[in-house]
Design a protein that fits this description.
single chain, mainly alpha, Glutaredoxin, Glutathione S-transferase Yfyf (Class Pi), Chain A, domain 2, 4-stranded mixed sheet, 9 helices, 4 strands, globular
Length: about 220
C-alpha cells in the first residue's frame, strides 16, 4: 500500500493519522507541493486532479482519492479501532464536526487557492494571509462552540476515544500554526488537540515529524 502525500499537506495528515491509529503499514511517497510535483504527468496519471493524498491499495486497484473518502474506506476495511461511533446519531455528529474542517474550511487554504489569490486576484502577501487566517480561525471557532456546548464531547470530540473528528480538528490546529493563528481563546479545541497529541499515533503523524519537513515553520 502506498500513500502519495506531502509532509505539509493537512489532507495527507488526516489519512496518515488514521492509518497510524489503525496500525496499517504504508509506504509514503512524497509529492512536493511546494515544487509543483502534483502537476507532473507522472502524478496526474495517479490523481488527475493533481492533489494529495492518493492511496494505492495494490497494483490492480485504481488509487483512492479525497481524504475523507479514504478514511471511510479504512473504517470499513480496518474496523478496529473504530473512528466512527456505533450509533447513527453519533456517526452523524462526528461526520458533521469532521466536515466543518474538511469541506468548509480546509479547501479555502490549499495551495491552488493560495496561488489563485496571488496570481489571478493579485492579492499581496498581507491580504492573502488575512484570507488564510480568517478561514482557519473561523472553523476552529465553530468547533469550539459545538464542543464546549454539546454533551457528547468527552476527552475527545465525541466521547473518550479518538474519532475522525479528532483527526480533522488536530489538522486544523496545525493549519493555525502554519498561518500564525492564536487559539488561546479556544480552550476546548486546545484541550482536545493536546489529548490527541498525547497518543503516539497522532504524535508521529505530525507534519513536522515527516521526512523532508523543516525543523520549524517560518511564518
Amino acid at each position: 500500500m502506498k500513500l502519495y502525500g506531502f509532509w505539509r499537506s493537512l489532507a495527507t495528515y488526516r489519512v496518515r493519522a488514521a492509518l497510524a491509529l489503525k496500525g496499517v503499514d504504508v509506504q509514503e511517497v512524497s509529492i512536493n507541493l511546494l515544487k509543483g510535483a502534483q502537476h507532473g504527468e507522472d502524478y496526474k496519471a495517479i490523481n488527475p486532479q493533481g492533489v494529495v493524498p492518493s492511496l494505492q491499495i495494490d497494483a490492480a486497484t485504481p488509487p483512492l482519492y479525497q481524504s475523507m473518502a479514504i478514511l471511510e474506506y479504512l473504517e470499513e476495511t480496518y474496523p478496529e479501532p473504530p473512528l466512527l461511533p456505533k450509533d447513527a446519531l453519533g456517526r452523524a455528529r462526528v461526520r458533521g464536526l469532521s466536515l466543518i474542517v474538511a469541506c468548509d474550511a480546509h479547501p479555502l487554504i490549499v495551495p491552488r487557492i493560495r496561488d489563485y489569490l496571488e496570481k489571478s486576484m493579485h492579492l499581496d502577501e498581507a491580504m492573502r494571509n488575512r484570507w488564510l487566517q480568517h478561514w482557519t480561525l473561523q472553523a476552529l471557532q465553530v468547533l469550539e462552540t459545538h464542543l464546549a456546548a454539546e454533551r457528547a464531547t468527552g476527552r475527545f470530540c465525541h466521547g473518550d476515544t479518538p474519532t475522525m473528528a479528532d483527526i480533522c480538528l488536530s489538522g486544523q490546529v496545525f493549519a493555525a500554526d502554519y498561518f500564525n493563528v492564536a487559539i488561546t481563546a479556544l480552550p476546548t479545541v486546545r484541550r482536545i488537540f493536546d489529548a490527541c497529541m498525547a497518543l503516539e499515533a497522532f504524535d508521529r503523524s505530525r507534519p513536522l515529524k515527516q521526512p523532508g519537513a523543516p525543523q520549524s515553520l517560518a511564518h
